[in-house]
Design a protein that fits this description.
alpha/beta; Protein-Tyrosine Phosphatase, Chain A; four-stranded parallel beta sheet; 10% strand
Length: 164
């Protein structure tokens, strides 16, 4: 795990932390950890439940919100999941600094970017351009990234897929 950088927004996006790294997050002032991994994925140093227990022991809140990079029609992220993530992230940020993670930081970065896009009113093309500029498609490939962002934002903008 690289050095913890909570930036000006009190938000860290990272790959899978182990127990020692969770301790470093707590020492850095993180109040909530949001885990986007599905239990049983490869390279997990502990189960989702064990990670939650470690976070609680360290005084941090813990949210497990499994996200898949599969297309929405195959059970992956969609507008409803993006709305749920945005709601969780907004509530967590009210409590203080937040760390969002997945295996490598790709899903975490993309979900944070999608939440930002929805908040800023960006259309899918603007969000995709920002994601590509940040290198968020490197692990999954540009075509998969574009499909993922479009499934969360919709082709018509950030409100597509939101229930109102």
């Amino acid at each position: 795990m690289p050095a913890i950088n909570l930036n000006d927004h009190g938000l860290a996006v990272l790959g899978q932390p182990d127990e020692g790294e969770l301790k470093r997050l707590a020492e850095a002032g993180v109040k909530t950890v949001i885990n986007l991994r599905n239990d049983g994925e490869d390279a997990m140093p502990m189960s989702v439940r064990e990670e939650g227990a470690v976070c609680e022991e360290l005084g941090m809140d813990y949210v497990s919100l499994p996200v898949s990079m599969r297309p929405a029609e195959e059970g992956g992220a969609d507008g409803k999941l993006a709305t749920a993530f945005e709601t969780v992230l907004t509530a967590a940020r009210e409590a203080g600094p937040v760390a969002v993670h997945c295996k490598l930081g790709q899903r975490a970065g993309e979900m944070v970017l999608i939440a930002l896009a929805r908040h800023q009113g960006w259309d899918a093309d603007t969000a995709i351009a920002a994601a590509e500029e940040l290198g968020l498609g490197e692990a999954v490939g540009p075509a998969k990234l574009r499909a993922y962002v479009r499934s969360c934002l919709g082709d018509d903008g950030p409100t597509a897929g939101r229930e109102g």
